[in-house]
Amino acid sequence: MTDARVTVLTRVNCSACERAEAEVARVCGDLGVSWSAVDVDSDPELRAEYGDRIPVVLVDGAEHGTWKVDEQELRAALAR
After folding, report:
1. CA-to-CA distance for 28 and 31, rounded, in angstroms?
2. Per the omega criterion (within 30 degrees of 0), is the bond before 44 cis?
3. What tens digit of pLDDT does each residue of 53-78 get?
4. What is the CATH architecture assignment of 6-79?
5. Considering just the CA atoms, what is the radius of gyration of the chain in Å?
6. Is 67 helix (H, G, I), strand (E, B) or coil?
7. C-alpha to C-alpha distance for 50 and 38, rounded to whole angstroms
8. CA-CA distance, 47 to 80, in Å (whole number)?
9. Which residues of 31-55 are buried (b: 16+ CB within 10 A; e: fewer)?
10. Pairwise CA distance, residues 58 & 75, whole Å
11. Which of 22, 35, 41, 66 is deepest in the core (most CB within 10 A)?
12. 68: number of Cβ within 10 Å
């Protein structure tokens, strides 16, 4: 999907997605960690798997969180 360490699965016109992206951008920027955003509607497999359960944050390809970003948990996961 991406070479970024953190991926935010998003959807166009999703205010929760915009907040999640902003938080991930801030945390990853602080830590110097690469991140990207992927629109689930651009990939039929992602859309089928995640549906309305977005935003989803993936760390190293594994699901880390859904609907909102827990900054402390994200920082801890990235410190490993």
Report:
1. 5
2. no
3. 999 999 999 999 999 999 999 999 99
4. 3-Layer(aba) Sandwich (3.40)
5. 12
6. coil
7. 12
8. 29
9. eebebbbbebeeeeebbeebeeebb
10. 13
11. 35
12. 12
